[in-house]
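**User:** I keep going back and forth on a fold encoding question. It is easy to fool oneself when nobody else works the same problem. Could you pick a protein and write out its sequence and tokenised fold? Could you put it straight underneath, so I can go through it closely?

**Assistant:**
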Amino acid sequence: MRVWIAGVLLCTMLFCTSCGSSPIAKTLFVQAVGVDQKDEGYTVAVQAFDPSQGGGGEEGANVSTTFIQAEGETVLSSFNNMTRQVGRRPFYAQNRVVILGEDLSQSGILSVMDVFSRSKDSRPMIDIFVARGQAVEAVSNTMEDSVNPAEKMQLLVEGGQSNGAMPRTQILDVQKALLDPYTDLLLPAVRLEEPKEKGGSQTMVMDSTALFQDDKLVDYLDMEETRGVLWIKGQVKDGLVSFSLEDLGNVALAVEETSSKVEAEGTEDGPVFSITVTAKANIQEINLDSTFRLADDQIEKLEDGFAEKVSGQMELAVNKVLREKQCDVFQFARLLMHEDTDYWQTIQDNWREELSKAEVNITVGCEIERMGKLSNIQEEDQYN
């Protein structure tokens, strides 16, 4: 991003005699967009790079980022009012992030997402978030004076995705889910945390996900429930699984390789879903004393501890999402429709309630690499 900013500034200096006469200087390069519902209309806010401000100032100062907001009866009229308000053309093709306000999300996001889907400047790979509060406040957060706050927000969700803690949902994913009457949405949620020290700035935190039924926000999932969803969907490819065992203490296992398989069938007693998750892991951290030898039976305990932890997260997800909220982010309905079409047709008109009563069987298997275990190292040392 710094290279891109430098390139824009260089073009400005080379081709223009003054910033005021530059087409680039008259453009605001939008990096993040927030949309809130307000009375009978909308409030939109943008976080934009402003070439006319340059990149000067004190080191680390966020002098080239501008925050603008406007109101209107529709989302598009709000954007148009923003253009008239600042007298400059916002350029949306570089946008990285869209944040939807909590009130808007609870009312329904279909019409708002339709605007982004139809816009010629909107890209399908823009990250979508829900603000636990006002989107305007989230967009205007400077992320501790980051040079590009929107980029830092994007890095947060990329990091969460890479360690199997957070789903990454983009405009294309939202479009597909909203067009499918049998698939619900799970979006990363952000909130602003008050500073711990007087005079400090608010910190943006991403520690939950927003659960939708159709296009409406119905609840939030915590990190344990969220990871349970990701295990079921086969989206945990990395990260740590931490737990405690009575005779082995606190343990952290690094996930190396995973797979997830879901099978569905209809029975006289209702739908049945069988979920099998397998994983390979290695020991990242364990409390040992100098005399402890990690034997095969201890490794088996670690494997069992891993399986218990992961299956517990999956059960939390199923209970909250499927049973309590009657939502389907797992695509169970689609799977049942494909694997047992005749049965599906008997429950199609009441599928949410039927799935909420479904039998869900969870099996988790873990294999921990035996090479390099402590007992092997100690035995080798005795003969050296």
In short: The chain has a mean pLDDT of 85. The CA atoms of residues 156 and 169 lie 13 Å apart. The two ends are 53 Å apart (CA to CA).
